[in-house]
Design brief:
With 395 residues, this protein is of the alpha+beta class. It has 7 helices and 20 strands. Bound molecules: zinc ion. Zinc ion (ZN) binds next to loops.
């Protein structure tokens, strides 16, 4: 038995590593037995990454390893090499256009788990990688090695179906009623945006992927996808597979940091908040919703706990935040000394009056500690979360 890894075969012009791997697996020599295919998301800031930032790994059982390697060699040269360097002139995405640089690896023995942890949390160099039994291609080798190194002790599942027309630019049809049904199941997640009710299962653009359903068990992911595909209101598909993934594991986050706020800088135009803290600079983007709201509310001297990941420029991107202690104060009217109701102003310089017993007193304010807009940990809304982000509600 050995491990096959593949990465970086997709581009904005279309293609998806899941489909490239599927075609490869469907055409293996007959005696090969294919294990569970893993879809592994990696460090979001890795340079040279294509859009999905997902690599694939799978164990393969075969009688004759040399025959398999020679088969993979042919497949690489005939089917995958041509995907190198594809970029799209499309203006649909404002992401930098990085040409794909496919990589494939074969390991007779699964490489050490540490290569996964490095590649999901940091920048890694191609020179620091373990030597594979056989390596094909370029930068994609890094993700391919990370994918086969992942042990998957903590995992979720995603069941993916591919479109019948690989090159269609038509919007995808996925039955809305079936989507509402599977979204209501306990073990599926991120099928619909809980605020807007819009679909989160289908990608946009030229990808061959029709849709992908995420779940906390393999069985539910597979069943939920089947419900979508069986509907006459879902377009026809060419094939499907359920992947074990590191999505929603939170594996990309560094251990949490407790820090004191030194300064809060808000970019009003872009809504970003930059927290200058005793432990580095942390950025909360506008899309972060509650994280951004809480970050903007903070002030000098507040103590916070943060989880995030370090950007190559040295700052941290904030994903989860909670206020521990804070200095914000607010003023409120005192309570009525007769009946305990909150006093109300009768107008400028006219004193306060109790709305219940009509007791009157002089104008005054109580100075009390303010409450943050959110208590406890906050995270971005579902539609803005990274594939890797573990929802707070999962504990
Ligand atoms: Zn009163």
């Amino acid at each position: 038995m050995g491990w096959l890894g593949l990465d970086d075969t997709d581009s904005l012009a279309g293609g998806c590593t899941t489909k490239v791997m599927e075609d490869l697996l469907q055409n293996l020599p007959q005696q090969c037995i294919v294990g569970e295919v893993r879809l592994v998301r990696l460090w979001p800031f890795a340079s040279g990454r294509t859009r999905g930032n997902a690599a694939l790994g799978v164990s393969i059982d075969c009688d004759d390893e040399n025959e398999l390697i020679s088969h993979l060699d042919h497949w690489w040269n005939n089917e995958i090499v041509k995907l190198k360097g594809l970029i799209s002139p499309s203006h649909h995405s404002n992401r930098p256009q990085v040409p794909s640089d496919p990589g494939m690896v074969w390991f007779s023995e699964q490489p050490d788990e540490s290569f996964y942890w490095d590649a999901v949390r940091h920048h890694v160099d191609i020179d620091d990688q373990p030597e594979a039994t056989k390596t094909w291609g370029g930068l994609g080798v890094i993700g391919a090695i990370a994918a086969v190194s992942w042990r998957g002790k903590e995992a979720t599942w995603e069941a993916i179906a591919w479109r019948r027309s690989q090159t269609s630019s038509q919007p995808r049809s996925v039955c809305p009623a079936a989507l509402v049904e599977i979204d209501s199941w306990d073990d599926t997640f991120l099928s619909r945006d809980p605020r807007r009710g819009t679909s989160l299962v289908a990608p946009r653009g030229l990808s061959p992927v029709l849709c992908g359903v995420r779940a906390t068990t393999r069985d539910i992911a597979t069943k939920a996808l089947a419900v979508l595909l069986e509907s006459e209101h879902t377009e026809s598909f060419s094939g499907c597979r359920t992947y074990k993934t590191n999505q929603a594991t939170g594996d990309h986050l560094l251990p949490s940091t407790v820090a004191v706020i030194e300064e809060v800088l808000v970019d009003e135009a872009r809504k970003h908040a930059r927290l200058i803290t005793s432990h580095g600079e942390w950025v909360a983007f506008g899309e972060g919703g509650p994280v951004n709201q809480l970050a903007r509310w903070l002030q000098q001297g507040d103590r916070v706990e943060m989880r995030g990941l370090q950007h190559p420029n040295g700052s941290y991107h904030l994903e989860q935040l909670r206020a521990i202690t804070w200095n914000a104060r607010k003023k409120q009217r005192p309570l009525c000394s007769q009946c305990g109701q909150r006093m109300k102003s009768m107008g400028r310089n006219q004193g306060l009056r109790c709305p219940t017993c009509k007791w009157k007193c002089e104008d005054s304010w109580d100075d009390i500690a303010a409450q943050p807009p959110f208590e406890g940990w906050v995270e971005p809304p579902a539609s803005s979360r990274r594939h890797l982000s573990r929802p707070l509600s999962w504990g």
